[in-house]
Amino acid sequence: MKKFRNWVTFAVVLAMVLSLAIGVSATSSSSMNPNYGTISGTSSQNSSSPATLYTSSSMSKNPDSARFVIDVDYNDGENYLTALSQRSSCGITSFTYTFPIYFTFDAIPNMAYVSHCVQDGTKYASKATYTSAPLTIN
Hints:
The protein is an alpha+beta fold. The protein is 15% helix and 48% strand.
């Protein structure tokens, strides 16, 4: 019986350590565009501040001074809860922004859907790539 109890204790401690070590999952996506090259996006719940969503967007070239527009839709599994948006300055090739994650007792988001859009250039049509990030609010 004592060996069994030791194994159970070991299993519980191992599960706790692994849950801390796994961390936050991030999703990345990219698409090719003849004008902007590779357009990439990443989104993840911020591990150092769990009530925030980290986003990063980049393009390999910006020939017409386009800007990034990052849109986030929070979802609780049934409903869209909040939509947030942030615009970058024109002419840059990378942009990071950290969004707040809003929650109430009635609505706790468990997923963020993010569009990383390149738009407002002087010559070329807009192009986007999409990511999603699972959220955990403890």
